[in-house]
Amino acid sequence: MIMLIFALFLATIITRIMPAFLVGGLNFPQWLITLLNYIPYAALGVLIFPGLLSAVETPVQGILGGLFAMILALFRVPLFFIVSGAIVFVYFLI
Amino acid sequence: MNIYRKSLMDGLTIGLGYLPVAMAFGITAKPLLTGLETFLMSFMVFGGASQFLALQMLSASSSAAAIIIAVFVLNSRHFVMSFKINYDLQQEALWKKLLISAYVTDESFALSAGIGEDRKNFRNYLIIFITAYIFWVAFSVVGYMAGEIMSEEWVAASGIALYALFIALLVPAIRTHYKYLLVAVLGMILHFVFTAMEFIPSGIAIILAMVLAAMFGLVLEKRGDKV
Questions:
Q1: What's the rounded Cα separation, in Å, for the pair B167 and B154?
Q2: FRET partner for B138 with CA separation of 20 to 30 A, picked from A57, B24, B43, B212?
Q3: Which residue range is the domain that position A62 belongs to?
Q4: What digits encode the pLDDT tens for the residues B147-157?
Q5: SS3 B198
Q6: CB-side exposure of B192: number of CA atoms within 13 Å?
Q7: Which residues cross the membrane (chain A) (predicted)?
Q8: B91 phi/psi in degrees, rounded to 5
Q9: Which residue is closest to B96 within chain A, CA to CA?
Q10: How far apart are CA B47 and CA A14, in angstroms?
Q11: Measuring CA to CA, which residue among A54, A49, A35 is closest to residue B222?
Q12: How far, in Å, CA of B10 to CA of B108, rounded?
């Protein structure tokens, strides 16, 4: 098991650190920089859905929990309270 | 507020988002791993989705090779994220970039992408990433030890934590410009479609959806330039 964990460590660290060697002071074309700037928002979308559907017991509870978090975020509630608020909200849904 | 304190608060925010997920990991690991192995898994692998996948495959008695390949593919999305972070840290020494890169996660990446230019440097990234990391490791162990104390409903409800964090990170960006909403929604749709196509491994589906949606953002930008 320890060997497997070590192999998993290698499997996850390689993709993480590889870019550090690639991005060594070289100049990137403008389109690539623009693309990179969009990556976080694309990533957030991808991470939210469809995972949200299986986040809690039923898809509906997941979506309601997500909507609740969104409403809190729209009211500029601090991050920590959005996260804990959503947990409490879903707890009462279940 | 002092900028380092601000980074510490950001790290705490991610850490608190991790807390329930890390505890859920510890609880799930209990029948499969020893306490030391649970600790090592969080300490060395440091990836929620990857660790849960490994547990799932262990309980289905998959082969070690299959687990390693699946985790590699699933985690390869961090290549794209780390690329962006290394671009922001271009001026830093290689060892500093390597150290930060090793701690890239979905959450720390998403948060650090939104911070001000004045904080896009080694020290602030280190504070944010390491604080989050400590929470992840510590609460995996706490979950392992104290799993039975938490009621099943709380464990289930805490599944929403990371999604609430992602949504909370996305909303401020959407407020600045609707184009970010378009890119995010396209990412969701593409990921949903790719997930439905069962021949695409889930790790590949994530990367494809992420890069294609970002390319759509690039197209939006280009069209905006001409008008």
A1: 20
A2: A57
A3: 49-94
A4: 777 777 877 88
A5: coil
A6: 13
A7: 35-55, 67-93
A8: -80, -10
A9: A20
A10: 13
A11: A35
A12: 9
Q: Please give the Cα distance from A85 to A82 (Å, whole number).
A: 5
Residue among A48, A49, A88 at smallest CA distance from A68: A88
Q: Is residue A8 part of a domain?
A: no
Taking the alpha carbons at both ends of chain A, their separation in whole angstroms is 36
Q: Which residues from chain B sit within 8 angstroms of residue A43, using beta carbons?
A: 77, 80-81, 106, 109-110, 187, 210
| B-proximal residues of A, 36-65, CB under 8 Å | 36-52, 55-57, 62, 65
A–B CB contacts, 8 A cutoff, strictly below: 275
Q: How far is CA B85 from CA A23, B48, B108, B151, B159, in A?
A: 10, 20, 10, 39, 27
What angle (nearest 5°) sits at the alpha carbon of residue B93, between those of residues B88 and B94? Answer: 90
Residues of chain A contacting residue B152, judged by C-beta atoms under 8 Å apart: none
Structural domain contains residue A22: no
ipTM value of the model? 0.89
Helix (H) or strand (E) holding A50: none
pLDDT digits (tens, 9 = 90+) for B147-185: 777 777 877 887 888 889 889 889 988 998 899 999 999
